Amino acid sequence: MARKGSIKTPLTILAISITLFATLSHHLHRCVVYQSTSLSTSFPSLSSPLPPQPPLPPPPPPQFLFPPPLPIPNSASWDSSATSSPSSISTVSILISDWEVLVIASPETPLTPGENYTCYFGHNSSSPARFAGELSFGRGTAFKCVLPENNRQRSPYTKPRLVRSDQIQIPLFEREIAAADLQRWNSLAYDSFTTEHDVVLFVKGVNSRQGNNRPASDLRCVFGDDPSIAVRTAVTSSAQEVFRCVPPNLPENSPQKISVTLEIIHGKDADALILPSVAHYALHEERTIEFSEPTSLMCACTMVYNVGKFLREWVTYHAGLGVEKFILYDNDSDDGLDRRVRELNRAGFDVRTVYWPWPKTQEAGFSHCTLYAEQLCQWMAFIDVDEFILSPTWLDHRKPSPNMLKSSLLPKGTNPGRVGQVSVKCVEFGPSNQTEHPVQGVTQGYTCRRKFDRRHKSVVMLEAVHPSLLNMVHHFKLREGFKTSQLGKHRAIVNHYKYQAWPEFRAKFRRRVSAYVVDWRQSINPKSNDRVPGLGFEAIEPPGWAQKFCEKTDERLKVLTRRWFGVNSSAMIWQSAFYQTMQSMASIDQA
Ligand SMILES: *[C@@H]1O[C@H](CO)[C@@H](O)[C@H](O)[C@H]1NC(C)=O
Ligand SMILES: *[C@@H]1O[C@H](CO)[C@@H](O)[C@H](O)[C@H]1NC(C)=O
Ligand SMILES: *[C@@H]1O[C@H](CO)[C@@H](O)[C@H](O)[C@H]1NC(C)=O
Ligand SMILES: *[C@@H]1O[C@H](CO)[C@@H](O)[C@H](O)[C@H]1NC(C)=O
Ligand SMILES: *[C@@H]1O[C@H](CO)[C@@H](O)[C@H](O)[C@H]1NC(C)=O
Predict the structure, then answer these.
(1) How many other β-carbons are positioned within 10 Å of the β-carbon of residue 15?
(2) Identical fold at 80-184 and 296-590?
(3) Which family is this protein grouped under (predicted)?
(4) Which range (13-22, 74-83, 119-128, 186-195) has the least confidence?
(5) Domain ranges of the chain
(6) What's CA 329's distance to the chain center, in Å?
(7) Quick one: which atom of ligand 5 is closest to the CA of 550?
(8) Which ligand is closest in space to the CA of residue 114?
């Protein structure tokens, strides 16, 4: 695959078309309070001419494509009792928030494309199963069902059976629906990732407080479904929801895929023994990332929910500055993210998604991203879709160049003082009199901001990330010998379009992302820094919202992006692509 340097061709393609974005919401990520360390030097050089040839995009992941059925391992967590009738599907189920049940169908169970599925909960109650997403690395297909109201009084809750809607056989199911408990989200091994050297587990409920991590020596990793014969290995790191296990030495005749979890062997709650798990370790499993891909210098990773309408502007802009790959952790978007991503892929941008349905796990998701991208990227910008990196040194450039981020942000020379992370200050923009999403994009619509910078965002060298993968959402703990460099505002800032037009901002209320940040809707901790000043606990537009957070006019990025990405006096390149896509989507839909 060619090095992704140019945006010329994508722009040309994008430029063919016209129009505006649909109305959707996006969620709020925030910069994290941070004390600066050292200041690194040097100014960017002039941009080089655009190299040709954007790469081919990666093929979109297959949907509903399953291998032929294999014998299901006798796993403690997959529901193997359900294999007795033809219509049954092997699943694990987790009760998450708001009476929603995440039902993950084993990849070994054939699902029929285009069929409707139902969750059957017993006592004649069922609810439709909504297709939610494919877990990465073929770990299964996720559905969501609502626990029916008349089953909510009965604790322990029964785990639903996932069945084809046209194959419900109530009498048979009633006999089979043993009181298998639903997994609870507060204490669960939910995912695992096998690296060359170890097995990384993602577990909720062991380290519940920020900064309060149980020693690794209190824990052991347990590989196998039967605890009496399971293989146990040492835990080498315990931080937040991330645990690293020495890989198991499994007997040759072990099942292909076994469950993996943690066991608490010392300290408080040691009697709690083995944590429930929906995570699996597959024997001989390697990461399924294409190792033949050349490593990119700069990538971006973020967690997204319904950001479809912001994506094109954000990707176009940052790709123009040298971000070669975009990795989106999709928190269950329902605004057609996949189609948006495919459309960007067709336009030559390398954008991929990882379906990440786990509630309140932003830190863990970013830890996962560093593993996922280890071989794909040297530097990773952890910036959100409402954040745009800007260096004042670019302001008089006629065109963007893929060399710009490198020369403005990254340390220089062969021995750059072991800088492993650069931290960029954020400035927060207000609604700037907008009352709805600005059709030409956020960079055009929001031009008034708070005067002083708040918080920061980071660009991290993945090799420098500490093995604990510990992060405060937007900066990482580094290995010994690496340091963080805080860039001055003359070198770079992040324009954070944080307080947007009211309909946009309102949508953020419903979704909070970090595991350790208080939900805005809860009325505890009213003085928290995470709250918006002047905002109560309800999503009601405060008087004068459109004029709030406006202390300083800042049109630098507006002017720059107009020069770089303007089609004519009234349209930006990201508007036009949408029209083209809408047309082609309409013709596909009609076909
Ligand atoms: C600007 O370009 C768009 C998209 O190509 C087009 O629809 C629009 O009419 C143009 N406007 C002007 C003022 O030229
Ligand atoms: C699935 O359900 C939808 C909505 O109820 C219906 O239109 C569609 O025909 C169903 N598909 C199948 C294969 O039954
Ligand atoms: C379920 O419904 C059937 C008929 O619809 C009824 O005969 C049966 O008793 C019901 N079972 C339960 C457990 O409510
Ligand atoms: C994803 O969205 C859900 C539902 O709104 C929310 O509870 C959860 O915290 C989000 N998870 C992440 C990792 O952002
Ligand atoms: C918002 O509108 C007010 C009143 O018309 C005006 O004075 C102000 O300059 C506007 N602010 C921005 C950022 O456009």
Answers:
(1) 15
(2) no
(3) Belongs to the glycosyltransferase 92 family.
(4) 13-22
(5) 80-184, 188-282, 296-590
(6) 2
(7) 13
(8) 2
